[in-house]
Specification:
The chain has 443 residues and is α/β, with parallel strands linked by helices. The chain contains 15 helices and 16 strands. It has 2 domains: 265 residues, Alpha-Beta Barrel (TIM Barrel), CATH 3.20.20; 127 residues, no CATH class. The longest helix is centred in the first third of the chain and has 23 residues. It is elongated and about 75 Å long.
Amino acid sequence: MTEIIFSFDTEDPVHEEGANGILRSAELLTNAGVVGCYNTVGVLAKALKEWGREDVIDAMKKHEIDVHTNRHTFHPDVNEYTDLSDFHGALSLFLADESECLDTLRETFGVTDFPAAVPPGNNASYLGHYGYAKMGIPVYSGGVVYDSVKGRPLSFCNVYSLQYNISLEKTLFTADEARLREILDELSEREIAILYHHPNRSYFKQYWDAINFNGKNTPKEEWTLSPRHTDEEIDTFFANFKKLVTMIQNDPRFHLTTYRELGERYATERTLKKSDLSAIKAQLDEELFPVTTPDSFCLSDIFLACRDFLRGKTQHECGFVYGFLEEPYAITEPVTVTADEMRESTKWIPTGHFLPDFIYVDDKKLGPADWLRAALEILSGKESVTVEPAHWQIEIEKIPGLGYTYRGTWIHCKSLEDRQLSKRQQLQSWTLRLPKDTDRYIY
């Protein structure tokens, strides 16, 4: 059965009439008994109050309120102000800005927590994942790192990343029932499918920010409005929307859900036991990639568990994980280490930080992947092991979003140099987790 989410990027502070699109979609879903997920921008929530649209706010309160950043594409946007070498400094800026958004949404809608965050455009860098995870938000939807084949929730930097699939504004103005059935047939092949919509686009033909914030901030008094759809076109959109909802509700292949339900289902604690290492080592011997049995473990989980086991523990509680900030070292020739040397080397491996770029084992320098391979051999009973040169990184092409480049894309300012974002995105591959007991080979 495919689980379907209606996800709405609720964001436009420029077109006041666009709020009618929010109202009509929310009331349509409420009347159908469906909960939509309204990913709301902080400045839009403020605009709704300024416009006196309590009717829209009340309609949205019947649905799930999620986060779509504080200022969306007002520059500097999230990618622009977090492209810093100082990760902790960038994270502090992010948490301050997004905390303001959460406070605004709590005050406006009376909510206490937020099941999901959705990046605007491609503002979906590694830092946003870590930032929202720190804020206790479990799901990150519509980003660039996801399982594009089956639509499974893929954990990256401690949040579950999902893919947007079908744009309602690109579909419902023209689709007939036959086309809607084709779309549902396509979606039935996925585990999770997200039907997304920008409510203002049911009334207006272009994105508000593409007109006014493409590489610059246009002053409010100079904002340009998008061409409006005709009343007939708008009515056609909502008639098709209602038809689509009914078709999904009557189709046994689908179950309508929300980000909250998914986040609660997958928010399970994991314990990696020393007795699990044999099965884990067999999978890593096949390929340096996340393992899915006996549970869902990322490479960072396994690395830290091996550290604990070499210190004498018998199990490791998997928690918040990190990748690397700089490309890690890797040996270029064979290195032999002993069990005692490996046990002593664990003092160089911290908890609650990014993984070390290298580890000294006595006077020998190993990369983290080299150290992990040696640890697995020592923990299987060997007193010494010779580590051979091998890749430290998973194959990036298997997770295409890890190779995404931010510079010169979307409507970022030309000043975005992308000095860190794209590079460090790849360096977080060791935080990837796939669902338990599923196929590792997804691409």
